[in-house]
Design the sequence.
């Protein structure tokens, strides 16, 4: 939505196809000190604004630039490193690249007319091989042998893939809090799911070694991506649709953390929708589209995060989607037609 992206030159597009995307984010980037949501926001602005004109440059050059950028700006937000890839498209001539500050900025200073629209899509419980996009063309089996995601295939063909990034936690709430703030779960104290306190007490009752009680609500003093963007661009409209799941207090939600438009303090139960709108996939898509169209018509820049309830259990899909996969040859690793339909 918004301004039309400039078409890539043929040379740049072919270069991306030959390399199959870029994968050079090493583990050294995931071990450095955290700098928070301001750094994440600056990375979002830099990647989306300039669209990496070096797409046709040697792969080593591109890797070096990404390493330097992420080392300085998104040091311990591991999952955010992978998700920011959705904003990196392969255009060759949008103008000179932005300089990267030596340290994460305290404020994001950029004229509103140059501010890009930002869309962050988060899928719940989707694995590395959960789509038909190969996450590493050099490795057989780096994609699903049953699920088909043709739209993502087209997107990946003109984008960049970060295939060596890791979530900061194997649990939902801690990972989501890290995405919002750029801080590790340990720094936030959010080391378990917000709904797990009863189970937490039972698991460690009577044990000699007990971990600290996890924080159950994202602290309001933490700066989220939305708040970081608004700090320098108050006119920017921010939205969060779908699964929030970082606050046990249902009276709070994204509105307490810089989001103008949102679905509230939602969790897994809010995604239990059946019929023609399984997991609220299509309803959420409609809300996001309506939000973006409204902002474009009003001439306002926006940031929207779309957090899917899928692919979290309970597994459900439209009947026609499941029937499509029942007629296909099952894969060795993936073979559930309902899960495939939900994907």
Sequence:
């Amino acid at each position: 939505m918004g301004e039309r992206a400039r078409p890539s030159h043929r040379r740049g597009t072919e270069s991306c196809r030959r390399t199959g995307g870029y994968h050079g984010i090493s583990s050294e980037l995931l071990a450095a000190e955290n700098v928070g949501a301001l750094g994440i926001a600056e990375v979002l602005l830099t990647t989306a604004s300039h669209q990496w004109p070096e797409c046709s440059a040697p792969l080593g050059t591109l890797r070096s630039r990404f390493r330097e950028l992420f080392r300085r700006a998104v040091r311990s937000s591991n999952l955010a490193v992978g998700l920011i890839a959705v904003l990196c498209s392969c255009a060759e001539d949008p103008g000179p690249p932005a300089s990267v500050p030596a340290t994460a900025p305290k404020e994001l200073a950029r004229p509103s007319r140059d501010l890009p629209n930002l869309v962050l899509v988060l899928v719940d419980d989707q694995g590395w091989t959960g789509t038909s996009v190969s996450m590493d063309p050099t490795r057989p089996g780096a994609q699903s042998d049953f699920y088909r995601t043709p739209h993502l295939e087209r997107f990946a063909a003109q984008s960049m893939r970060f295939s060596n990034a890791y979530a900061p936690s194997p649990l939902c709430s801690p990972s989501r809090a890290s995405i919002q703030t750029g801080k590790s779960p340990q720094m936030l104290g959010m080391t378990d799911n917000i709904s797990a306190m009863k189970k937490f007490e039972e698991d460690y009752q009577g044990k000699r070694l007990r971990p600290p009680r996890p924080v159950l609500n994202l602290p309001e003093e933490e700066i989220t991506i939305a708040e970081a963007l608004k700090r320098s661009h108050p006119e920017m409209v921010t939205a969060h649709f779908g699964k929030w799941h970082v606050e046990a207090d249902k009276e709070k939600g994204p509105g307490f953390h810089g989001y103008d438009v949102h679905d509230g303090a939602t969790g897994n139960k809010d995604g239990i929708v059946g019929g023609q709108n399984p997991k609220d996939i299509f309803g959420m898509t409609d809300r996001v589209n309506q939000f973006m169209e409204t902002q474009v018509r009003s001439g306002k820049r926006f940031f929207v995060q779309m957090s899917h309830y899928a692919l979290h259990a309970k597994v459900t899909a439209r009947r026609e989607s499941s029937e499509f996969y029942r007629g296909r040859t099952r894969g060795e690793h993936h073979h559930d037609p309902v899960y495939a339909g939900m994907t």
Remarks:
- The first strand starts at residue 118 and ends at 122.
